[in-house]
Structures are given as C-alpha cells and as structure tokens.
Amino acid sequence: MVKRSCPSCGPETGGEEKKGRGNPISVQLFPPELVEHIISFLPVRDVVALGQTCHYFHEVCDAEGVWRRICRRLSPRLREQGSGTRPWKRAAILNYTKGLYFQAFGGRRRCLSKSVAPLLAHGYRRFLPTKDHVFILDYSGTLFFLKNALVSSTLGQIQWKRACRYVVLCRGAKDFASDPRCDTVYRKYLYVLATREQLGVVGTTSSRACDCVEVYLQSSGQRVFKMTFHHSMSFKQIVLVGQETQRALLLLTVQLALRKMSHCLPHLRVACMASNQSSTLYITDQGGVYFEVHTPGVYRDLFGTLQAFDPLDQQMPLALSLPAKILFCALGYNHLGLVDEFGRIFMQGNNRYGQLGTGDKMDRGEPTQVHYLQRPIALWCGLNHSLVLSQGSDFSKELLGCGCGAGGRLPGWPKGSASFVKLHVKVPLCACSLCSTRECLYMLSSHDIEHHPAYRDLPASRVLGTPEPDPGSIAPQDPGGTAQACEEYLSQIHSCPTLQDRMEKMKEIVGWMPLMAAQKDFFWEALDMLQRAAGGVGQGPPTPES
C-alpha cells in the first residue's frame, strides 16, 4: 500500500493498520521521473484535480515533463510544443479542450452535436461557417476545411451530417475572412492571409517569407487567386467590407491604400477591426472606438440621425464616446455591442426586435449599458438578434440571447425577448466563442492558459456612475425612471379583470424588466406555481411572450 506523505501536510493520521496490509510507503520515496510517468497516464481532468490535493502533488502535476508526455499522448503528430511560459502544458490543454459544437435550429433533433476533430489540429483559434461548410484555424497556422457530407448511420440509413469530414486547406495562415454579410448564403469565397516562402534574387537559392492573400472556393477548397506582397510588408488581420460590387479588402497593420482612418488619425494605432457590408469598426491599442458607415440607412439606425452623414466622404472615421477602454466588440448589420475593461456591455443601434437587450424596443443612438450583464466571455451580434456567452460563479457556462426568435434562433424563446434570457442550449465547459447562422448555432471550445481574463474591478465611485453618497445623505434620485415604470406596471395589473389575467400580465412584465436570466426564471416558475394553486391551467415553464 502506498501512502502519501507530504512535508506541508505531514503524514496522514489514522488508526491501526488492518491485518495483511503491511506498512504504508511514502510516495516521495519513488523517483520523481517514475511518479511523473505514472501521472501522465491520467486524464487531464484528473491530473488537474490531483494537483489540488497538496503541495507535493501540485508541484509534480505542474511539471513540464508530465505535460510533455500528456501532450504527446493527445497529439502524437505534434512536433513542436508551441510558445509561452508553459509551452507543453499550454499545448496539452489546448488539444484536450478543443472542439466545435453546433445545434441545428430545424428538424426533430435539437441537441448539441460535435464536429469531427482533425488529428493534426493544434487547438482551435478561430472558425467561420460558410455557405456549405466550416473552416477552422489552429494555433500553428493550419487552416482546416470541415465538410458536410452524406454518411451512413448505425441503422444503415443515409443522412446528411454537418462537419463530419475534414481536409487541410493550407498551412502558414495568419487570418481568414469571407463575405461580411450575416447570411452564409453569400459566403462563396474564402480569403486567407498567409505567409509563403518566395525565391529571392533571380539565380540564387535564397528565399524570403512574404505575406500573401489567397482566395479559395468554399464549395471545393480550390484556390482561384493569389496576391503576394513585398517582404517588407507584414500583416496580422484581414477583413472585407462593402457591397459585392464595391468590395474592399482591409489589411492590418499596413494597407495597400491607406484608409481615411490612417490619414486623419496617423498617431493612433489600430489593434483590431470588425466589418459588415455597410460599415467598419476600428479599436485602437488605447481602447478607443472609431466607425466608418457607408450607407445612410445604416447610419440612421446606428446614430438615430443623418445630420453628420456625408455621402461624398463615407470613410471619415466617427469616434464613439465611451467611459472606459474597449476590449472587444461585435458588429451586426445595424446594431453593435462593445465590452469595456470593467466587463460592462454597451449596445447601440436599431432595436426593432429588442436585439439590444435593454428591455424595450427603442433605438439607441449612442452606446447604452446593459446593467444586468457583466464580464462576458464572448459577444455576437447578428441581423436582428444578439448572443452573449457568460460564466457563472461555479465556472459553468450559459448562453443568453435577445431579439428576434423566429426560425428557432433563440432556442426556448420562439417569440423572442427584449432582454437577454437564458437559452435552452447545453454549453460546453470550455466554450470561448460563438456564431449563429440561419440554420445553426456554433460554439468553439478551447482553453488557452496564456489568455488570462483582462477585466478590472470597477472603482466603487463609478459603480453607479456618480460619487458614493454619504451614509447620512438623502438617497439618490432615480435617473432611469424605474419608480415611474413600476407604477405603470401596477396600473396595468390593476386593470386586468381576473386573477388569471393578472398572472399572465405579471409574467409579461417580468420579461420587460431588466433582470438577470436566473431571476426571471425564478419569478416565472413562482408565478406558475401560484397560478396552478389558484386553479390555473399553466403547465411547465412559461412561454416568454415578452
């Protein structure tokens, strides 16, 4: 019998040893190489749990030798461990947690499924669904082509499956993009930013690494175009913007023809970009946000006016007024979402279907905070709905959505919601990004130990946007009109003729109020219980008619 004896914990206390068991042996008597070899055969989840038992096992389970063996067991074809302060541990966890999950909106089976996992993939960094297939970029720069195909089921039937086969499209990829429109029907071509070795001076064998843009057919993966740049030009991101007949290709950090953003604000350094067919959003390294809007209709939806729109100078960058540094964003057709360094979510634009999650359907011409949501993992804006991937205190993930629910795009909420509500989707434990199409919801799973949460704690004086009041001072006034809204809600409930009508009206009002998803679920369930106790007919969880 082997017994753990840790210097920090001391030998384990216990009664007399049972007969036939013999004396306990300290695990520290074994050579460290042997202990590491034994631990490397455990599943990753058990290795992490074992490392939390005591100081000795924490050091053993955190050793790079253990993670090197685990990484080679998970990915035998991985030749290099990658980069970072803990390269083998990072590589092992990236490959253990990688996965692409999807849930179809139509059909009988509406459950979460997992795509085929390419054996050569070194984690998943980014993905993009196109008209017929899905493309995934890993951390080593390999772009994979996941195909939909007809396969034979276990019962011998032929059925159509998503992302069930894969091939390597290209290597050395830095980034990729497709048609900026929300509908995947238009994504017929894939634009890949890659690095290729090019011959140097004619007559010599030397070569230089040059960036290039390659265009592939998404249906077959055939390359139809290639454009190579001078070796002195280096890029890190590619996006497409504009209508199909006036398509522009934007490259970061150096562009073929400088946009107005670079001419007007040469002192600002753009950190990342987002685009759709009518606008482009830039986030600087200091967290500032600048906008290009190219059509008057989208400009009116985003800002509520056409006063500053100039049809002759559509590339003029517009600065958004925000209270803090912006970390990342999501850009829909006529609305957008921003997340700042304190984890606050700001929404702006068209709110016809409640896609801003503000609890109403009033358009917002400037960034408006969604107070009941904080510190999201991912944010996504579509044509007329929005999704937020959040994490609970117990590290469990949940998916929230608002806006139009037609076509099943908000699972569990067919009539939509003007507030973010918890969707009926089982979210993977390590989900990190998401995307929704007309037919399917996709979630990418990958955990990078080098990517730590960048959110800061909000200073106490800024929690309410005003300085903290003294304990003896008068309570602050209600700037949002909450008291007046509650009085209006009570008036609506009082006007209902029967108890059942009042219950239904109360359920509807709960959907309007800016509450957290768990709070709304609680109130709806409690109202259902009261309704059944009073002889109502409500059965099961309420339908979100709000």
Automatic annotation (TrEMBL):
Protein name (Swiss-Prot/TrEMBL): F-box protein 24
Provenance organism: Rousettus aegyptiacus
InterPro entries in UniProt: F-box-like_dom_sf, F-box_dom, F-box_protein_24, RCC1/BLIP-II, Reg_chr_condens
Entry-linked SMART domains: FBOX (SM00256)
RCC repeats: 343-392
Limits of the F-box domain: 24-70
CDD domains referenced in this protein's UniProt entry, alphabetically: F-box_FBXO24 (cd22098)
Membrane-spanning parts: none
Spans annotated as Disordered: 1-24
PANTHER family named among the record's database cross-references: F-BOX ONLY PROTEIN 24 (PTHR47004:SF1)
Pfam family, one: RCC1
Record PROSITE patterns: FBOX, RCC1_3
